[in-house]
Design brief:
The structure is a homodimer. By secondary structure, chain A is an alpha+beta fold. Chain A is built from ten helices and eleven strands. Chain A binds a DNA duplex through helix 4.
Chain lengths: 224, 224
DNA sequence: CGCATGGTTCGATCCTCATCGAAGCATTCC
DNA sequence: GGAATGCTTCGATGAGGATCGAACCATGCG
């Protein structure tokens, strides 16, 4: 009964929610580590690792080891194209969009992504930082502008707090499907938001909820 | 954690072997009945029915009721395109082609498809019947030529044995991915092959195994 | 060297879902 | 109407696989 290509095998790899989330997160083109993918998928590290082995074995991912980090990325543009095609069908047949619960709504606005902020707020912030020339786009990379370095330092944000990681990195946003800011700067900004008590993390969730005053402060500093 | 389109849902629909086989069978563009799809997928009718409900609910199929027959077809070209994309990836990552067992090899050569013959033999036969102008292509349909009618009657093949079904129909071949002959004529030819003992059906399989002498007879009559 | 951190493997648990037989509908034929 | 055919629903069974905690490797840091 089996014929040529085993399409069920490939499709079932994408057919698990956790794996689908990982693949979706990788659609931005940026390779991610197992920990990051575990957080994005909302599963534990062992579970994520198991999924990643399967995706590797299925030929959907490539792996680049750098020191003790292992960066997973999509194997090819063909794989990305397949996922796009599936997304297209899912969008076409799924106008039965599930009513987003309050939790989900909060997540869409702002949530933690690994160690930095994600969601509409984060995407808007990155846009503004570009507008204000505090950050610069270079190909697919993000660089800190000279004016930006002094700016963030003046705000009390220590950019080099956690060295040995890139200062700026783009990270594709789930809900908005556009990039937000990762890297040590992204992490430092999230740290400041929490330290200043502008927002608190929702328990057992990745949602980040701003207080009215905190939101004002945040918008004044990053969205102005 | 859920965002817009539920890609895992769609992918998992394709990710079951039985459903994948059904979808693959429908890639020829011909709508098929539940029974035919059950045979193609190698599952029982209840199982097939359950799968078809799921595919319908997922929006991948359309249903056209004609009398007591229910014809299932792919919902859209977009769905077909998605399946093509998945097939492409499966072919690209799967040069680890499983060694075809003897059973599989036999299936590729000749097997039963519903009530008619499929496989390399069947595809070759249809080609020859066109060459000899016993059948005529008309758009996507197949018609019995006048010379064909008398020809088959002379061979002792009763074309009208099971009336109320089209005499000729194209059916996409799994292993060869080209059409073979279905319809009452296709069924009558298979009946003759079995009746003349040119071949026997493999137990618990769809494979059709020709005897050396039977193959000679068959080739003389249909592949000459 | 020992410690910390990023990842994987192992083992046990649990749950979803594919499967089929039997029974039930629906439609058509006689 | 009654019988036959095509298909679906129901119920019970079983297997695959997703999940996580704990233990185990590997790499880099002091």
């Amino acid at each position: 009964m089996r014929e040529g290509p085993d399409i069920a095998r490939i499709a079932s790899l994408v057919g698990d929610p956790a794996r689908a989330n990982m693949l979706n997160a990788l659609m931005g083109g940026t390779a991610l580590t197992a920990s990051e993918l575990a957080l994005e998928a909302g599963v534990s590290l062992p579970t994520a690792s198991s999924h990643l082995s399967k995706l590797m074995e299925g030929g959907l991912l490539t792996l680049a080891s750098q020191g003790r980090h292992r960066y997973y990325g999509l194997a090819s543009a063909q794989v990305a194209g397949m996922i796009e095609a599936i997304i297209g069908v899912a969008e076409a047949v799924g106008p039965k969009r599930v009513r987003p619960g309050p939790r989900d709504a909060a997540m869409r606005v702002a949530r933690v992504c690994y160690d930095h902020l994600a969601g509409e707020q984060a995407v808007a912030m990155l846009d503004r930082l570009f507008d204000r020339k505090l950050l610069l786009r270079e190909d697919n990379e993000i660089r800190l502008a000279p004016s930006g370095a002094s700016h963030f330092t003046a705000l009390g944000i220590d950019i080099h707090a956690k060295a040995r990681r890139p200062v700026c990195r783009a990270c594709l946003d789930w809900s908005v499907r556009r990039s937000h800011l990762a890297g040590t700067l992204g992490a430092a900004i999230l740290d400041k938001i929490i330290a200043e008590k502008w927002a608190r993390r929702e328990k057992d969730s990745r949602a980040v909820v701003f207080s009215p005053k905190g939101r004002q402060e945040f918008e004044r500093m990053f969205l102005a």
